[in-house]
Design brief:
Two copies of one chain form a homodimer. Chain A is mainly beta and 228 residues long. Helix content of chain A is 13%, strand content 34%.
Chain lengths: 228, 228
């Protein structure tokens, strides 16, 4: 069994959000598809350990905010690698409460779908929730949706050679080591830097300030290991 | 409710196949995601009216063949718009029987996932099947997976202006009318032609031979209507 096959499935990237009483939470998910058109229903798959799972179980409502290709890594890191038990993820994030009363992300979102749970299936570590769509809309038609492939290949600094944005790294950069976050797997590539947060291409890992942290999961610089 | 929001969800494009006794069938689907990693499971959503649904119900087994970006429209049309009750879709298609005994498509496929159904959920017009993966593998690592967005925007002849492959149509072509298949919605664009089947860009719809048929669903030329 060559599990690399799983990486050939194509996905988008979404913020799935819900509420429990007056508390909100949201998380990054790549697993969502429309199930039926009459009535419109949508499926999501959520890990049972996640706070968003607890909130969906409680309120039976969720929203899927579809984020744009230009979404900064920090935003994905906040919703994807932080836990809502530790922080209020919606602090400093623009959102609105829609038809069903759960937060719809407005920052970096190009569309939203709100639903009420009508069915669910226990799948071990995850639950598939099917929701009947109560409202949906386009927020920004000028930007393309973020895909999981794009996030992995471009946003993490690994640009495929076939991509129009690929640039051959200068010889000097090639000798600089890449470092991998032991928490979330993010690769710091000195040939790319982290333009989103002002780290220019060409900055060696060793030259990053000691208070620098992973742009995805905020792990300390010390959590990074040199790529073998 | 602006249903255009649904089109912002990202999907791949797959041949989902199954068997019933000694008969095989397969269909195009865009709805599949991995659900859990331990054990590896995968979800698919299938319309109850489809023959593949009947076969999965009967054998409790299915395979997902992930097709490449370069898959010709005719191949997608055969699996997507023909019915297995009328034709044997696997005639003249290279396939293998894998671990669970259902056909894995080899033509145009870059990877496959085989599974046995362990759970299912009735969703009205569709059923979501969850299968435990019994085998999976990569068939062609050099090609990218077809995405639903790519299929719609490029394969149907509508190339977005932001695409590197976009070419401004010559003035002469712009005056040529586009024709839409009333069966499957395929748009014949004379500015693009159907390079897959030797119809060069610049060929007017009126100049296509009378025996020409829709490259997606094989509907007769007479089923096409001029775009308004």
């Amino acid at each position: 069994m060559d599990k690399a096959a799983f990486h050939k499935l194509s996905y988008g990237l979404y913020v799935v959000s819900s509420r429990k009483n007056d508390k909100f939470n949201g998380q990054i998910a790549n697993t969502s598809f429309q199930v039926t058109s009459e009535p419109p229903t949508i499926a999501i798959s959520i890990n049972k350990q996640n706070l968003t799972h607890e909130y969906i179980e409680a309120s039976r409502k969720f929203a899927v905010s579809i984020i744009s290709k230009s979404t900064p890594m920090q935003f994905i890191g906040k919703f994807g690698f932080k836990c809502g038990r530790d922080i209020n993820k919606f602090e400093n994030v623009n959102f609105k409460l829609g038809e069903v009363g759960v937060p719809i992300v407005l920052d970096n979102a190009i569309a939203f779908i709100e639903a009420e749970v009508i069915n669910q299936m226990d799948c071990g570590s995850h639950t598939i929730f099917v929701g009947q769509v109560k409202d949906c809309g386009v927020l920004n038609d000028a930007e393309e949706p973020m895909t999981y492939a794009y996030y992995h290949e471009v946003k993490r600094g690994k640009t495929p050679k076939t991509s129009p944005t690929y640039q051959e790294a200068p010889e000097k950069d090639k000798r600089k080591a890449r470092y991998i976050c032991s928490v979330c797997g993010y690769t710091y590539d000195p040939g790319t830097g982290v333009p989103d947060s002002g780290i220019n291409a060409g900055t060696r890992f060793e030259d990053l300030p000691s208070e620098w942290s992973c742009p995805i999961c905020s792990a300390d610089k010390a959590k990074f290991e040199k790529e073998q």
